[in-house]
């Protein structure tokens, strides 16, 4: 059995991984923004966002996470992704 400190350390390591993954996602969003600009496409793509939220719904069920939480989380992530695409 883990101690409280060991579990907290694991949470810190997991949080560091989350931040690293978010940084990678935002870098990809910048690249997507550059391509959209070059191709004259709009930043917001509602059909793509619909696909993503269906995907997130599937994953939230697969991992037994509250769907509402996952939706709120990704609304924030996508909103900020749009900002870096501009």
Automatic annotation (TrEMBL):
<keyword id="KW-0413">Isomerase</keyword>
<dbReference type="InterPro" id="IPR010950">
    <property type="entry name" value="Chorismate_mutase_arc"/>
</dbReference>
<dbReference type="Pfam" id="PF01817">
    <property type="entry name" value="CM_2"/>
</dbReference>
<dbReference type="GO" id="GO:0009697">
    <property type="term" value="P:salicylic acid biosynthetic process"/>
</dbReference>
<dbReference type="InterPro" id="IPR051331">
    <property type="entry name" value="Chorismate_mutase-related"/>
</dbReference>
<dbReference type="InterPro" id="IPR036979">
    <property type="entry name" value="CM_dom_sf"/>
</dbReference>
<dbReference type="GO" id="GO:0004106">
    <property type="term" value="F:chorismate mutase activity"/>
</dbReference>
<dbReference type="InterPro" id="IPR002701">
    <property type="entry name" value="CM_II_prokaryot"/>
</dbReference>
<protein>
    <recommendedName>
        <fullName>chorismate mutase</fullName>
        <ecNumber>5.4.99.5</ecNumber>
    </recommendedName>
</protein>
<dbReference type="GO" id="GO:0046417">
    <property type="term" value="P:chorismate metabolic process"/>
</dbReference>
<dbReference type="InterPro" id="IPR036263">
    <property type="entry name" value="Chorismate_II_sf"/>
</dbReference>
<feature type="domain" description="Chorismate mutase">
    <location>
        <begin position="1"/>
        <end position="86"/>
    </location>
</feature>
